[in-house]
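Retro notes (design track)

What went well: tokenization of the new backbones is finally stable.
What didn't: we kept losing track of which sequence belonged to which structure.
Fix going forward: every design gets posted as structure first, then sequence, in one message. First example under the new rule, 207 residues:
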């Protein structure tokens, strides 16, 4: 299944007041995780492809978090994220324009994050770019880093894109032989401005 074109993400923020995947709150699956297991989210946190930063601001409020950085290639989304964080008093939240497929150009320190949040980003990349994205995760993650990933499952069949991610793919890409270990993998629901999406919520540790 094809990945959505990059131009779609640019136009969603420059031509519309609200992108179709942006809701007025953090993703409920992440809110539930933070509420039930706050100790998982600690230290330096990176929010990949953060959009307008609602998940970033959520994580900034976790007591064990020292800082959280939201990154996105879209400068319009980043400016909105800064405004949202300021309005919510999320002082620990910072934002930066970064091309996630080119982490070495970001100016960020390699292997420097304790937790990485991926809320509906991985499945947006083509199979060709998937390996670059996983390489970026490996660039940013320090040993023991927890990757919290929310991605669409094969049970979501109503719309043409982005890609749906099988359990087999997750276990293959994030295998121990590739330097990862899946700590937990469960069904979850991704909320959007339509009907929502059947998804996976994965906890994956960098070895």
């Amino acid at each position: 299944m094809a990945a959505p074109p990059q131009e779609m993400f640019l136009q969603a923020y420059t031509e519309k007041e609200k992108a179709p995947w942006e809701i007025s709150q953090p993703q409920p699956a992440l809110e539930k995780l933070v509420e039930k297991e706050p100790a998982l989210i600690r230290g330096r946190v990176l929010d990949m492809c953060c959009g307008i930063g609602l998940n970033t601001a959520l994580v900034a409020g976790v007591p064990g978090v020292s800082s959280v950085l939201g990154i996105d290639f879209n400068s319009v989304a980043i400016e909105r994220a800064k405004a949202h964080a300021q309005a919510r008093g999320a002082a620990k939240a910072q934002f930066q324009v970064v091309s996630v497929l080119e982490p070495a150009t970001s100016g960020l320190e390699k292997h420097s994050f304790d937790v990485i949040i991926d809320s509906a980003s991985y499945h947006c990349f083509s199979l060709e770019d998937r390996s670059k994205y996983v390489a970026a995760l490996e660039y940013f993650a320090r040993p023991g880093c927890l990757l919290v990933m929310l991605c669409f499952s094969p049970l979501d069949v109503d719309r043409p894109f982005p890609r749906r991610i099988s359990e087999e793919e997750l276990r293959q890409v994030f295998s121990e032989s590739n330097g990862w270990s899946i700590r937990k993998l469960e069904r979850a629901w991704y909320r959007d401005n339509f009907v929502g999406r059947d998804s996976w919520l994965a906890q994956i540790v960098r070895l």
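Added context from the reviewer: The mean pLDDT is 90.
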